Amino acid sequence: MKQLNSTKKMVLIAIFAAIQIILACTPLGFIPVGVTRATTVHIPVILGGVLIGPGAGAILGAVFGLTSLVINTINPTITSFVFSPFYSVGEMNGNIWSLVIVMVPRILIGVTAHYSFRAVQKLDKSKILAYITAGLTGSLTNTLLVLGGIYIFFGESYAAVKEIGFDVLFKFIMGIIAVNGVPEAIVAALITVTIGKTLAPILVKDVK
Asked: What is the pLDDT of residues 73-93, one digit of tens each?
C-alpha cells in the first residue's frame, strides 16, 4: 500500500476513533456476556492498523483502552477492578496493573494486525488471507494479553469474585478464550476482510 499523507492519516484516525467511541457508547461496542463484556470496539483498531499504519493502530488502541477504562469505572461489573484502578469491589482493588491490562493489549492490537497483514500479503495477491490473518491476530492479541494479564496480576482476586478456586482459574480462562475469544476473533476476521477490501481501493488507489 502507498503511504498516506499526514493530513489524510489524521482525518482517518479521527473517523475511526469516532466510530470506536460510538460503539463504546452503544450496546454494539461492549456486549454483556454474564458478568463480562464481549467487544467489537477492537475492529476499528484492527482496520486502522492495516489501512493507515501501525502508529495509527497504536493510537486507536489507546482510544479503545481509554473507553474501556471509563466504562469500567462509571458502569462497572464485579470484575471491573482488573480494568480500572479507580474501582474496587469488597477487598478487591484496582491498581497500576489495571492500567497495564486495560491499555497495553489494546495499543498492541493495531500493531500486530498491521505486521501480520504485511507478512501474509506477500504470499497472498488477493489479500483476502492477509485481512483474515490481521483480524484474527488483532483480536487474539487483545484476548490473550488481557486474560493473561488478569491471570498473572489479579489471579487470586479474579478467582475469588468468580467464586472459583485459583487452582482451576487457568482452565476457566481457557474456557473464556474458547467460548468468547475464538468466536470474537472469527467475527473480527470476517468484518476486517469485508470492510478492508472495500475501503482499501478508496483510501489507497493502488490496492486492488
From this structure: 998 989 999 999 999 878 888
